[in-house]
Amino acid sequence: MEPFPPVEPVSEVIWIGGSVDKTSACLRFTDETLDVDLVSRLLSSEPTRVHRKGEALRSGRIRHLPSVWLLNSPAAAGQTLEEQIVWLLDRVSNDLQVWESLTKMSRADIFCGLHLKAWNRGFSLSAGLMRRLVKRHLTLEFDIYCDAEE
Fold it and tell me: Where along the chain do its domains lie?
């Protein structure tokens, strides 16, 4: 049985639709005066990385952007965006009072990268996951990249 859509291009046929080819997700807290150590304590989780405002970067330049606390989901082949976001939420505190406090002191979101090898790709998020995000006052941010060769 031949793969669908075919691996090799077929002349005069355009394949559209399907799932997003690659996704990434990151839980992010940002603020000018963000205490990244406090975020770690409140969430009971260590970040993938942090950047503090005024801190020297590897290049030696001074960081003038807000401080940021980041937790990245591991990118596994075939993993959906929903699975990555659930992984992030399962790694941090479920205490909604903690989330209330954190979202009052900083901007909080789930940053999502969507990579498309062709146009007209899609994804969905379940109502259950959307409820979890709303209860934590989290917004979703999307960067969409088209990696098509056309």
Answer: 25-109+124-143
